[in-house]
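Students often ask what a holo structure prediction actually looks like on paper. The answer is less mysterious than it sounds. You provide the chain, you provide the ligand, and the output is a string of discrete structure tokens encoding the 3D arrangement of the protein together with pyridoxal-5'-phosphate.
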Amino acid sequence: MLCKNIGVSGAHLTFAGRDTVALAQQYDTPLYLMDEDRIRENCRIYMTAMREAFGDKSFPLYASKAACFKRLYEIMKEEGMAVDLVSSGEIFTAVKAGFPMERAVFHGNNKTDADIAYAIDCGVGYFVADGMFELLAVDEIAREKGITQKVMLRLTPGIDPHTYDAVATGKVDSKFGTAIETGQAAQLVEQALQLQNIRVVGYHCHVGSQVFDEEGDVYLNAADIMMDFGAQMERKFGLVMEMLNLGGGYGVRYVEDDPYVDIGENIRMVAEHIKALADKLHIAMPAILMEPGRSIVADAGMTLYTVGTVKEIPGYKNYVSIDGGMTDNPRFALYGSRYTVHLANRMDEGCDFCCDVVGRCCESGDVIQPEVKLPKPNRGDVVAVCTTGAYNYSMASNYNRVGRPAVVMLSGGKDYVAVRRESLEDMVQNDL
Ligand SMILES: *Cc1c(COP(=O)(O)O)cnc(C)c1O
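The corresponding structure tokens follow.
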């Protein structure tokens, strides 16, 4: 099985030790399941490895865009994680959950003045500023509010992590951050130091998402460039790099032939490399931050659906339609993402029926996964899609006025609703 929290009992698929068919019956479908114990385990992998490798001042931040709802912030708080936030909506959710905002970092390539003011009012610990426009706005609003805002500068180190273009963000021509290569980053530092109400504590880069480290040492290369830049800025402007934030991005396994990333081992490798760089460049070791999103929640998620129609077109292909689709999981439509799909109530049967598993939306592109092999499904069978904990609920929409599914958390043999299913009334709540 793809992950150790997935299993089979009799003919039924299990998740976090629970019978998925029973859960589908109990809560109805489509249904997001989340394995709370797995989320906590994933947090602890980062917490432990980063403390050991980089020391006490270093810490992981959960990139909450991967999955954002109140209960998750409570879990992050309990696990001692910091968090990344990218909008007033995410800030509001974290505040509502009682998350300590001094451990929050505010991201985004176009924060509005209202976002900036709200984030400062909520006491967000750090801004990651994308460029000069933002620095000026933050400085001005911070002055009005009589505070000094801690800021990291988001830089593009010019690295191509060989992942999908849509999720590669560290290249020079990215919409995010300020480029080192063009000299603009150095200029940004110089200008930032003139501003009275911000304090530059370090630098940030994020080279991309779903990064596997086999072909290139993406994080090591990023560290080379960022450490070198930090040392240059210290020599030139006397600005000590207190923090270096290396972003997110470790990959997870969606299908059996995806490689496995040993995150703990990778972090140890990055740490050794950065310590050597600090020695070579004669600068103090900065606190290291990392921002995992996907690798915290992806394998803690599974989505359950009920089969509706099975359409066979002899000589062409077969379609299996389920009661959800791109409204709860747009990732195949967006990126061609791969997924592992099971027929959860018939795990004891051979998989000899090849089909496209498709949603119920009025879009031909509404595909969850093409060319899946299953036992030939019947109406009412339960389809399970694995590894849906990241970028599914958080990317869900109400297209076709389909309500978002409930999120049910599983922990220690218990289950509870963390996000309730959207009702028909919810569909018209903002219509006047
Ligand atoms: C998306 C993002 C992350 C998280 O990336 P994952 O691939 O989910 O780990 C971290 N930092 C920034 C700035 C991001 O945009």
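The chain has twelve helices and 21 strands.
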